[in-house]
Amino acid sequence: MNRHTLDARRLLCPMPVIRAQARVAQLQAGDILDVVCTDPGAKNDIPAWCRMHGHRVLAIDEHNREITISLEVGSGE
Amino acid sequence: MAKQQYKAVALLSGGLDSTLAVRVLQDQSIHVEAINFYTGFCVEGHTHAIRRQDQNKVKRNNALWAAEQLGIKLHIIDVIEEYKPVLLAPRHGYGSHLNPCLDCKSFMVGKALHWMQEHDFDFIITGEVIGQRPMSQRRDTLPVVARESGAQDRLLRPLCAKLLPPTLPEREGWVDRERLHAFNGRSRKPQMALAQHYKITDYAQPAGGCCFLTDASYSHKLADLWQARHRRDYELDDIMLLKVGRHLRPSPDFKMIIGREEGENNFLEGYRHAFIHLRTPDCTGPLVLIDGQPSHADLELAARITARYCKNRDQARVRVQITPPDAAAWELDVAPLAADAIPAEWLL
Q1: pLDDT in tens, A16-65
Q2: What digits encode the pLDDT tens for the residues B153-203?
Q3: Is A65 on the interface with B (CB under 8 A)?
Q4: Cα(B102)–Cα(B91) distance, rounded to whole angstroms?
């Protein structure tokens, strides 16, 4: 299992989802991706995208205006 | 032998029509997955995401939300670069504003066709209804979309299919044409009734549609950008900044983007590295970005306008800090411009 970070700050919906989608496609099942965002819409959108594509949201942390969504890559679509 | 599972790819905006089109096909046991193309001009609550006063409003991507309610997968695809020729030189021209709806629809169906072929799907569905939109959804333009996209008879419009020649999925019996619909015109009543039938109560209804290019004010700002730069082109940052702040053009040489509240100032902060920016260090005031090549006199005027929007606007003099992107900040001590000294034509 490897841990990766994706900087999606300043990007507005749906770009954080698009960038997460592209990054997840390069990762292995079990890898963890921390997506750092500033658009509060990502708190709904990235978990929704994870649910429909079989990935798991591990945590959503907010600090100042930054939101970090940690997701575990699923085993297949 | 087991019956073959046919697969359709849907163009899903999250609005009622595209949601219903998917639902109608699900009723016929078709496997549906959806795609949503992001052009940069899609209305996705960006203003709400940025503005402080709107922070408590629910923010969600309409297409993602609709797909989850429908129980299907959604693939969001970035087409920002590929979309430029569609907007900059539309073969069929623009609608009321800078909306190239017919070319846009053909482009998106064409992209969906490629996706369909790559992923071994059988046909494409959209939520189009004859007569629903004045440019892209007329009886004479629906065949144009099917032809110019290359999708031809693999493009099925479940909500008005019975008013159109049978498509391949209907002729081959993959779907039952009799269970499709014959919606026509601008009335929303048939869609509302069908939504009630399917118990769909919550769906996106963006005022003015789902594209900023149908908005008069936004199109005016985009046209101004092209005119000022003497070229028709744009980057994603350009079209994002058109959604934020008060835009004033006091001269052909420069434009001011003025944050109207804390959330917009925070958003504009992210662009300080690329623009000359102004602020009032002694009091609460806007962050102002300057787009263009201003002279010293232009910057003095910009400083007076900036002072006009700060908390100390009623004082005789206000200190304004001016910071170029790659040089040290400097200051001007200026008299705030009176509100009636800002001509209406400066406001974009």
Answers
A1: 999 999 999 999 999 999 999 998 889 999 999 999 999 999 999 999 88
A2: 999 999 999 999 999 999 999 999 999 999 998 888 999 999 999 999 888
A3: yes
A4: 9
B231-271: pLDDT as tens digits? 999 999 999 999 999 999 999 999 999 999 998 998 899 89
Query: A10 CB near a chain B CB, below 8 Å?
Result: yes
State how far residue B163 is from chain A, nearest Cα, in angstroms: 34
- For the beta sheet containing B288-292, the strands, ordered from the edge strand earlier in sequence to the opposite edge, are B246-251, B254-258, B288-292, B276-279, B318-323, B330-334
Q: Is A62 on the interface with B (CB under 8 A)?
A: no
- What is the complex's ipTM, to 2 decimals? 0.94
Query: Is A50 considered catalytic here?
Result: no
By CA distance, what is B77's nearest residue in A?
A18
Type of residue found at A20? A
Interface test with chain B among A7, A37, A45, A77, by most B beta carbons within 10 Å: A45
Residue B60 to residue A48, Cβ atoms within 8 A: yes
Give the active site residue among A13, A15, A57, A60: A13
Neighbours of B275 (CB within 10 A): 18
Please, which residues have CB within 8 angstroms of residue B185's CB and are 6 or more apart in sequence? B129, B130, B131, B132
Distance CA B180, CA B194 (A): 12
List the single residue in A21, A39, A49 with the smallest CB-CB distance to B49: A39
Domains of chain B, earliest start first? 7-212 (3.40.50.620), 244-346 (no CATH)
Q: Give pTM, 2 decimals.
A: 0.91
The residue length of chain B stands at 348
Amino acid at B11: L
Q: Is B122 in CB contact (< 8 Å) with chain A? A: no
CA-to-CA distance for B46 and A41, rounded, in angstroms? Answer: 9
Domains of chain A: 3-72 (3.30.110.40)
| Strand ranges inside chain B, DSSP E | 7-11, 31-38, 74-78, 123-125, 155-156, 246-251, 254-258, 276-279, 288-292, 318-323, 330-334
Q: How is residue B1 written in tokens?
A: 């032998």
